[in-house]
Task: structure prediction
Amino acid sequence: MVRGVVPRQPAKTGRHEGARKPLSRPKATPPSTPKKGARPVAKVKAAKTSGGKPPAGYDPVVPERVREILKRLDERYPGVTCALNHESAWELLVSTILSAQCTDARVNMVTPVIFAKYPTPADFARLKPEQLEPDIRSTGFFRNKSRSIVGAAKVVMERHGGQVPDTMEELLEIPGVARKTANVVLGTWFKKAVGVVVDTHVHRISRRLELTRNDDPPKIEQDLMKVIPQEKWIDFAHQVIHHGRALCVARMPRCADCPLENICHAADKTWSTVEVHKNARP
Ligand code: SF4
Result:
């Protein structure tokens, strides 16, 4: 130690000698432009004080509003399609069965492995479900999914000569196939608009946009089929699914960036320039 330099001791006052006062934080000033995700309190309050009820005569499914929603989705998501990688109707059918309660990205990791091992429906039909389970385990619900896929392969082989059928009635007879899967295969592979795919995103966003008040996928599909022109059924579902991933997520939707913002009255908006409607919620 250098001579004459005494180690510092704690001050008797309890405050360290020479210690600086903590810098006081500058008071936050409200931003002049809305921050992404910020909630415009005044407007949401105003909506609440009016009871969150739509004004008398408001009809969320008038053709002009529906047309505007479709137009904006077209502009924002041009040319989008199914995110499940596939090269045949059979691969799309298997991928869609695997995508239940699982992300498309995860399914896209699993399918190259299983289609390399079992290239045709005939290969799957020869399997016992237990043989497929290890390969699809990471997609969740793998026991049910294995049973469905092997069962589907058997039906495709025995009743349809190895070809996936292209009608709703026949698809619905395949194990593991309900309307959502059938609509994905019919719309994406066969380009047939027989119905509207109602997955978790379409379910949530259709309710936020007040295109339906139902909570049951088959009823939601019927409502959407009534208000959306048939030639848009396939694109609408693809676009809404993309919208649900990109902006209109389940929690904290990114309303400040949304092209539908000023025609959306969802009760759980995170930013709104229009009144919110208390029943317009997922
Ligand atoms: S404004 Fe918000 S809630 Fe409405 S569709 Fe857009 S992201 Fe979803």
